[in-house]
Amino acid sequence: MLQKKALLALEDGRIFRGEAFGYHRTTTGEICFNTSMTGYQEILSDPSYCGQIVAMTYPEIGNCGTNALDLESDSPHVRGFVIEELSPIVSSWRSEASLQAYLTQHHIPGISGVDTRALTHHLRTYGTMRACLTSEICDGAEAVFRAKNCEERADLVQEVTTSQSYDWDVDGTLSRPWVQNYPTRRTETNSQQDTLFSLPEAQHHIVAYDFGMKRNILRSLRRVGFLVHVVPARTPAEEALALQPKGVFLSNGPGDPATLDYVRENIRKLTHHVPIFGICLGHQILGLTFGGSTLKLKFGHRGSNQPVKDLQTGRVFITSQNHGFAIAPDSLPDCVGVTHINLNDHTVAGLRHKEYPIFSVQYHPEASPGPHESHSLFQRFFNLVTEVQGN
């Protein structure tokens, strides 16, 4: 059977042709690339990709199918999916549906047969740009026109934040399957054996602002002993403090942090009261709250192989990242210190406040997908909350 044709048109006129898969329709959005070899399902369902067409640099995608347990949210948030080759078979005992079926179910168009190496080189050279992915338009010029006129929404957070507050996994049933047989550290007596981790009793109640939060962040917070109350992005600081949290967590999310004035105002009111930990968009919001500014990266950091250096210890971590903006280092006031840098381009990858118990990182310590080298940051937050409570 002949495969339906599709094309990917960039706003600068570059056109890539291939075969359609997933749902057959036309979509537009900012195109970016991800360098992860695995974890395509987690990437598709990561709310931080809201409004974007994602291209995978790894050549074959779809080998493992999809399953409900690995979803980072209820549904995919990408506008389109670009790959070089769609695996003709699904080989995983955990698979519940093929990638083709998953995208079709959620009305997400995809294109395969694209020279993703050439596409990535183009985006690295000319920067992230708007694009049109279609299986309905054959005329490249029309598709380029659609890309140029792609609507850019200012506040993507409102599309992905929770509509109402809720308590996450009070009884541990959602987190426990991810903890059983989960190796967390080496034993002191035998470095070749892993210590198995059991789910601890929740000790500290925290509020987590949902700007597009991944489920594995919630699981990671619960896994170190937090009882997490998730609130919408617009939740007033007074309402959050009325819950008497021992700490506040600021999640990842999509879009330009400079447009989120309403968030910064609320976070500013919280900084004097409780320990705060921010990840990705939450990190950028903290930087802006303390007087810094952000800059848009040429093609962003998206992948699970980003090297980050801890400036205090000199240790280098391989991290999972997904962002198109960064804190401008020269814009930060003296009360905020840079703790980590990205070794690829020396952008800011971590901050801490010198007076308040507040810190943040520009990467995903929960991984999903990616390495778990930085998972200890959740334990660091737990220890910080415990220390503040002790004082």
Comma- or semicolon-separated keywords:
seven-stranded mixed β-barrel; Glucose Oxidase, domain 1; single chain; alpha/beta; 391 residues; 2 domains; 11 helices; ten-stranded mixed sheet; Rossmann fold
Main sheet? Answer: 10 strands, mixed
CA distance, first residue to last residue: 70 Å
Named CATH architecture of the largest domain:
3-Layer(aba) Sandwich
Looking at the structure, the CATH topology of the largest domain is: Rossmann fold
Largest sheet, order of strands side by side?
10-14-13-15-16-21-20-19-17-18
**Average predicted local confidence, pLDDT:** 92
Total strands: the figure is 21
CATH fourth-tier homologous superfamily of the largest domain: Class I glutamine amidotransferase (GATase) domain
What's the structural domain tally? 2
Which outline best applies? globular
Strand residue percentage = 25-35%
Based on secondary structure, the structural category is: alpha/beta
Question: What can you tell me about this protein's structure?
Answer:
The chain is α/β, with parallel strands linked by helices. It folds into 2 domains: 5-148, Carbamoyl-phosphate synthase small subunit, N-terminal domain (Glucose Oxidase, domain 1, 3-Layer(bba) Sandwich), CATH 3.50.30; 157-390, Rossmann fold (3-Layer(aba) Sandwich), CATH 3.40.50. The protein has 11 helices and 21 strands. Helix 9 packs across helix 10 (281-289). It is globular. Mean pLDDT is 92; it is low at 180-196.
